[in-house]
Amino acid sequence: MANATKPTMPSSFKGINHLKLPCHSLKKTYDFYTTIFPFKPLPQYNHYTPEHKLFAMMFTYEPSKLIIEVRYSPTEATAQKGWDPITWGVGTRKDLEEWGEWLDASNVKRSPVLMGIKGWVMGCEDPDGRDREVVCGG
């Protein structure tokens, strides 16, 4: 058996392309990301079945170019209830308090501001019952 030389790892890796989250309702999730958080829809990247039924929507947070895909998948959304797959960042505890006021005024369930491992944190709940942690640095 000949010794094969392992190829060099490709250098083209660029990190995260986009995040993908399951949801129960595309409409409620659309409203959440465009009215509670500062995401803009990317309708040109939405996904449709061969029968032209919408099953996934794309959003971006323009300053960072982060893209999120929300996919209609109730079973997976139910399985993730209570899970916190994303941690958003803010700068200071004062920023968290401002977000707390915003979330309260928007009727979004949230935690109080708590001391985390690296700084202050506050969790909030999306329409599918997943926790989204809004966090500030230490």
Automatic annotation (TrEMBL):
Q: Which domain of life is it from?
A: Eukaryota
Name under which the protein is recorded: VOC domain-containing protein
Domain named VOC: residues: 15-137
Question: Cross-referenced InterPro entries, in alphabetical order?
Answer: Glyas_Bleomycin-R_OHBP_Dase (IPR029068), Glyas_Fos-R_dOase_dom (IPR004360), VOC_core (IPR037523)
